[in-house]
Amino acid sequence: MALEGDETGAWRERARRWAEQELAPIAEEMDRSDRPPSDLTRRLASGGFLGLGQPRAWGGGGESTRTVAAVLEELARVSSVAAVDVAVHLSVAAAPIARWGTEEQREQFLRPLLEGRALGAFALTEPEAGSNAAGLRCRYRWDGDTAVVDGVKTFITNGGVADLVVLFATRNPTEGRGGITAFLLPKGTLGLRASKSFAKLGLRGSPTFELTLEEVRLPRSQQLGAEGQGLAIALEALLGGRVGIAACALGVARAGFEELQAAAREVPADWKGPLLARSFVELEAAAALVERAAAARDRGEPSRRLASAAKLFASQAAVVIAGRAVEAWESPAGSRAARAERIYRDARVYPIVEGTSEIQEMILGRELLRPEPAPAKVRAAGDK
Ligand SMILES: Cc1cc2nc3c(=O)[nH]c(=O)nc-3n(C[C@H](O)[C@H](O)[C@H](O)COP(=O)(O)OP(=O)(O)OC[C@H]3O[C@@H](n4cnc5c(N)ncnc54)[C@H](O)[C@@H]3O)c2cc1C
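Above are the sequence and the flavin-adenine dinucleotide SMILES. Below is the predicted complex in structure-token form.
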């Protein structure tokens, strides 16, 4: 029965059932082969996840942040690959188009994303610009009403797979944050190439690409927001995404805890009791932080402190708890131990993506020096 009541509880139960039925049977294979099933996007769409929390006017479901967080947690508990797909698609691909797009852009690009007919990606990171997003070098120039873009983007989730990429490029790197503009880059655009695919420690099965852009021509109608507003758009999307990534990390922490508990029961040892106790406290604390951050966002309250705190704490809890589960199985042989190892490897991504732990500490430290919580608007600095 749904303890949270109403929308959030119902969606949580639905997502949990769906994940057990649809994701549990394929999670190990995605990890082993480092490849998702070719119809993963279609499956996620059929689960109703690709429009969650987005405006109804363009095909979204309009659910609360709490509901989206609950769904991401349940998906990540079974498969980080699916959860990260949905989190990226919703919060850093669809949400900025919903917020900053023109009516035409929303019809042409957002509606297919929210109706599950297309998958979205987000391309900010570059080989020389990760945490310091303001230092990006992917460059555009205007040729009449066409932007001509050249550069390299790296570590792009679904970069070579997604139907639409929200891309960030600069007019001139010397202009810093004020030179950065966002563009909508559809798959198959001439000059766009997935130039490298990364083999990762974890999140195997989630395609991570380097994208090379050579003389990519984008009409002005595919500029998202105003010229020079790109970094503000990116940082706002990342702020929105932070609670989602925290919720994914919480799902992984929960999966790790379940493994730890199973190992402590099946292979008993005195030292496992305190590990369970510590993990339980950390798991519940992470859940409370995610809930607080999501609820604050739903109420329209300033949520930057809580979002950073939730992302920081939940991602560390995921790594630590999953690591204890690996230890608690004692022997690496056996399918349960292998599952714990996969969860541990998957957990390692969460302290990195959408702003590393050090960057969250920096954001939080800066926020806590302010006399009052900052109003919920885009940040002034260029750190993710
Ligand atoms: C699996 C995966 C998927 C990803 N998907 C996407 C995606 O879809 N789109 C996208 O745009 N990006 C994506 N990324 C990139 C991700 O956002 C970056 O890796 C992250 O922002 C860190 O950037 P970086 O790797 O360049 O590390 P760096 O910024 O070089 O940081 C290296 C280390 O230095 C620390 N550090 C950096 N600056 C400071 C500072 N000022 N103070 C203290 N410590 C500091 C960092 O915390 C980190 O520990 C993905 C990454 C991974 C691993």
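The chain has three domains: 6-114, 120-227, 231-368.
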